[in-house]
Fold this sequence. Notes:
The chain is mainly β. It is 9% helix and 55% strand.
Amino acid sequence: MDAAEELIQGAGRMIGNIGFWPSFHDAEVISFSVSRPLHHANSGTVAKLRIYYREHEVVRAGTAVFEYCFRKSLLIELIFDGLQDSSLKDFNQQNVLDSIKFKRLQDSSIVAELLSIWGVGGVIRCNTVAIGEFTNLLD
């Protein structure tokens, strides 16, 4: 398995904010869209996956006012350019991921495998993956 930060353009932005490349465990897929160019355009088909990523921390552990608080709350957009194949299923009202795994194939394409806990899961194959919009919801 290739390191995701080596395969994904702009991964350093996320690593700089979070401190590491996340597995996306317990993150939620908010949207998935696909668009194609008009005829004679010089671009390929693009898919966008928007993910709600959270990190929690325990506050006042062992007391009566114990609680979990958000440490990170981010909307992250992954852009899959040069889409070759996608097979996603079970998109519903809450799409919780176990993880997203990235690997490069021998033909230089990249495969992203979305492993599901509940809701959407599947595989996306494309030429490149990049970080698109990156929104910190706690700012």
